Amino acid sequence: MEASTPHLPPALVAERVGTVATAPLHTVAARLHEVINEVLPHQALAVFTEDCTGRPQKKAGDPAITERVTIAELDAVRRLVSEGQQPGSALIAGEQRKVRVYDATTGAILVLCEPGDGTYPGAESYVRAVWTTAATRIRQQVAEARPDYLRESRAASTERLQVTAELTARHESDLETVLATLRGRDLDDARARLLATEMAAVALVRVRAGSDLVAALAEEPVSQAFERLRTDLRPLSRHGGTQIQFIEPPSDGRALPGEVAHAARAIVRSAVLLMREQEDVARIRVQWNCDGTSLLISVRDDGPGLLNQSRSPLRQLTARATALGGSLAVEAVETWGSEIDVRIPLDPPDTSDTAVHMWDLGPREVEVLRLLVAGRRNRQIAVELGISENTVKFHTSQVYRKLGVTSRAAAAALAADAGLALSSDTPPHTPR
């Protein structure tokens, strides 16, 4: 029978768990890989968590795996685990690989790719304990919504855009297959139509499922986000001696980007706790509204009206709002109470001009990159710009070099992050 703990000195075990528990979000995968590899060797690992809307996957280890593993692959593994299955192999980085999967109460999963046998008795228990610590800490850091996390999350829609690029490529392949079936001479018309219809139906289901995944990672319905806030604050209202009144946003309001939802909940929680510290506060009103471009937050108390924006806790709340391009204002009237008003824009600012300058892109390279973001293939880009495919390939390689990436999807995602998208009112280039 496996021992309950690995044969490692207790002090060393505590140190390893501590390094994971204190790891910033952007290093947690590397820390996990390091400490787990000591007792359970593996080629690479990937974490998939819906808590982090900016980068739902975190990975470390062999670049041949980490640079190719996709969110769609990890989501497929997560769905198997949620159905009670424990897959011994899975499609990871485009290949069927041996895996070991660990879930967590937060809904996140840890996937070890090509694991060996544990080098210590109790390795399994050790890995599960370390992973539980990491998963809990990830959720805590997201809930805290620190300004650095919010800025990274807003800027890092790369993962979501990569999923979109993957879906686009797969959908293109499906359409080419359907067209090849319809054009083929080996089948009669009736048989060809039947096969094409079946393939199109399967492709449509796949695209819809993928689109749902992208939307789930990117946004949270405003009513759902507000209900999560209500759940968080309910114990304070029941047992804290202060009545909290909730004024809900319209249920059909625009969905909130994940980083906005995280920031809004964190700001309100902190504001409510700050107001409750005052004397003679009997009621706090929490209201959200959405004007289509910004989330508007109001937190008002009936206390002494002495809150001052220069106080350290309020400066921290202001930092959260400004990290997303928003603002926070405090109005306090003595004996009448205090009100904290927050505005957080739902869309990131346009940074395309800054990005073009930073990357030192030429005019033609900008055109090529915009078309990459729009999902165009080399042949389509060549037609739209009136140049040869070889010229497109040359410009694409230059773009990769200047952006510091090695793939089409990565270039498109990075450019889209910077707001470098093809304008809907820009007419296609007419070849001369």
TrEMBL record:
CDD domains for this protein: LuxR_C_like
Phosphoprotein as UniProt keyword: no
PANTHER family the record matches: DNA-BINDING TRANSCRIPTIONAL ACTIVATOR DEVR_DOSR
Domain HTH luxR-type: 354-419
Protein name: Response regulator transcription factor
Key words, A-Z: DNA-binding, Transcription, Transcription regulation
Taxonomy, superkingdom: Bacteria
Database matches in SMART domains: HTH_LUXR (SM00421)
